[in-house]
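U., I forgot to send this yesterday:
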Amino acid sequence: MNPIPADWALATTHLASDYVSRQFCSIVRVMPKVLPPPELDVVLLMACSNLARRLADAYLNPVTINFDMVRYSDTLHMQESGINARRKQSLLE
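Result:
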């Protein structure tokens, strides 16, 4: 089932990330409910479930912002960068 060796240093991280991914898909109704892996302790399972729930909430409730990124970028480009022109020239030489 798990292609990662149990003695590998990141085996727990792999199990936790896989559980978060499957739990997220379960919450957004892409997959059926999943059982937590027995190798993970209770504190880590609670944190993973909380992370999956928050990610799913953000995914299911997108926020749209009336924001013109091109205009914002142009405005930032026009502002002074705070770099001394003489210092910049000396660095380029």
